[in-house]
Amino acid sequence: MDTTASPPAALPHLPDNASWPRRVLVxxxxxxxxxxxxxxxxxxxxxxxxFDYEVYEAHIQRMRATxxxxxxxxxxxxxxxxxxxxxxxxxxxxxxxxxxxxxxxDSNGFPPFHTDQPLDDDHDYxxxxxxxxxxxxxxxxxxxxxxxxxxxxxxxxxxxLGIRSPWVILTFGYPVVGLLQHKxxxxxxxxxxxxxxxxxxxxxxFLEFPFEDHWATPLSEVRRILLGDAAT
Length: 232
Description:
mainly alpha
């Protein structure tokens, strides 16, 4: 049996000063790569450049202006698989954020995110940070991991962070998730997405939150901090 790891899938090329249609095309092609190879080391950075470079730049500038945000950018803490101590988190009290994250991995039967993406600048770190905290988003928001709940989380993220890539996922997800799986008319699908989007808008930016400082914090308190009135 050949146990040699497959090489990362080839990514499309994004020219300098690419037009918006070209950026959308490259971004969509890269999303298809991520669908089959979630840990592709360069795909996250390419998605960032194609869809959301300016959006992430605004987050970076805001983070640099606060002690908490500046520390995240300076220290670049990692929540990916090789750096997350699930054993220590499992010893935390029931109901804490860290324990809830371990329970989430156990109940869904998959490990934490991993990538070998190099971090050449703050943009690379922020795009990696978004991907490796995705599971924390599920835990805090309460959205499950079935396909429709994933669409809700994408809409939440679009409202919360202002990034554009979820728009593509939601659009191309409707025929399969909304129509084929759930027999939803477009209006119903859009209504569900709009509710999640507005909830994300009302919440604090998750990308700028130091989850690793709050493993022992009760999940209910983390939800209060981040979601406020949008907790339900």
